[in-house]
């Protein structure tokens, strides 16, 4: 099976270009970097979780949004869903090898941002002060 190439790709050596409108990598980037996707991937880096454990870890996410997020990440090959044949059914979610790589890079960014929040908050105060609170 041949690897699909983005139809709008610029003169890049890579077959996929997230900046190209029709490139499927753009959708995966959205799944991973969206609000709930990034938090879910980051939480799963700590280890496998059941749905409700994950929901408690990712504060503020609704059951519906977490379910949609997990489905999208599973479809992209970032999360693995394993249903245990028990009564009641037990479902565990964990990162795939690709998901672990993605999570490590994402967590590096998260930790960088967390470590620089004093500078971010100062910049916000300065911006808000010069804009009259807009």
TrEMBL record:
Transmembrane segments: none annotated. InterPro entries: ArsR-like_HTH (IPR011991), HTH_HxlR (IPR002577), WH-like_DNA-bd_sf (IPR036388), WH_DNA-bd_sf (IPR036390). Signal peptide: none annotated. It comes from the Bacteria. Keywords: DNA-binding, Transcription, Transcription regulation. It holds the Pfam family HxlR. Residues 23-121 form the HTH hxlR-type domain. SUPFAM superfamilies: Winged helix' DNA-binding domain (SSF46785). The keyword Transcription applies. This is HxlR family transcriptional regulator.
């Amino acid at each position: 099976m041949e690897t699909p190439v983005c139809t709008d790709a610029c003169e890049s050596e890579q077959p996929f270009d997230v900046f190209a409108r029709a490139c499927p990598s753009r959708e995966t980037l959205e799944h991973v970097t969206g609000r709930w996707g990034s938090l879910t991937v980051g939480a799963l880096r700590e280890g496998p979780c059941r749905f409700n454990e994950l929901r408690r870890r990712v504060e503020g996410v609704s059951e519906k949004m977490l379910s949609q997020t997990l489905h999208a990440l599973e479809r992209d090959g970032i999360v693995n869903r394993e249903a245990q044949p028990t009564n009641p059914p037990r479902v565990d979610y964990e990162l795939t090898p690709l998901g672990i790589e993605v999570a490590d890079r994402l967590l590096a960014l998260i930790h960088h941002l967390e470590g620089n929040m004093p500078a971010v908050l100062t910049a916000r105060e300065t911006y808000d002060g010069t804009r009259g609170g807009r």
